[in-house]
Specification:
- There is one protein chain.
- By secondary structure, this protein is of the alpha/beta class.
- It is about 70% helix and about 15% strand.
- The chain has a domain of about 140 residues: Restriction Endonuclease (3-Layer(aba) Sandwich).
Amino acid sequence: MTTPNDPQPMNLDELRARQENTARDVAENSRAIAEMRVRAEERAARHYRAIAEIRAREQEHAALHDREMAEMRVRDDERAAWHHKNMAEMDESLAARIAWHEREMDAMRIAQEERNKEMAEIRANIAKLTQAQDRTNQDVSTLKGWGLELYCKRNPEIFAASLGLRDEEIVSNRDIRNIAAAARQAGVITLDQSRELSRADIYIHARRDSNYQPLCLVVEASYQVDGDDVRRAADRAALLDQVIREYQPRNLNGQAIPIVAGTDIAPIVKTAAEHLGVTYVNVQNGNQLTNPPE
């Protein structure tokens, strides 16, 4: 017995129709699946080809990169070799310049040492010449002083003209020494004073032209009159004046007058002479070494 919900029994035709439909669906599905497989395989083939192309391009890029890197390495090696070569050349050139500079410096040091030796020799020669010149100047000054003293002794009239004197007469050093010795024996002066008195350059006895008063000039003659000449003239004139006053020698009388005679005198020395009462007499051309005219 059947119920209302029970399926109705199918007949054979319907079953066959359904089977045929199912078979067609299965066939269509198979074709669809086959088409899908074909498309999938085509897509996979395209994918594989794309991948292969990508890999080929990557390999080409890698090969290109490798070639470029190799070329860069070659260029770097060439540049490094060029740099090393240039550095070696620069080092060689620098070493050559340093060696040349050292040779030049050695040559300069040697030349400087030679110049220093030459300069030392020149300075030594200059010092010798200076010493010789000083000695020559001293000798010339001494000779000029002797010449001036001789000129004054041979021309006592130059003092007469300068000081207003007359009857001038040279008193010899021998007479002065005799007077000094006698005065020493008389106790008027000491031995040292008698020796000092006899060392004056020139003694001249004369009279003042105005009043005939007798005078005795004590002269220190020097080409360049200095303070020592002034002091010696003042001291020796004072000694002679003491001898004349206290001993009163028979062959010498009058006041002793200190005189300095020369070609030149410094202002300060002339002032000192005036302060000591020493008269300066300028003697022009009195330093000739030849015999002056009588």
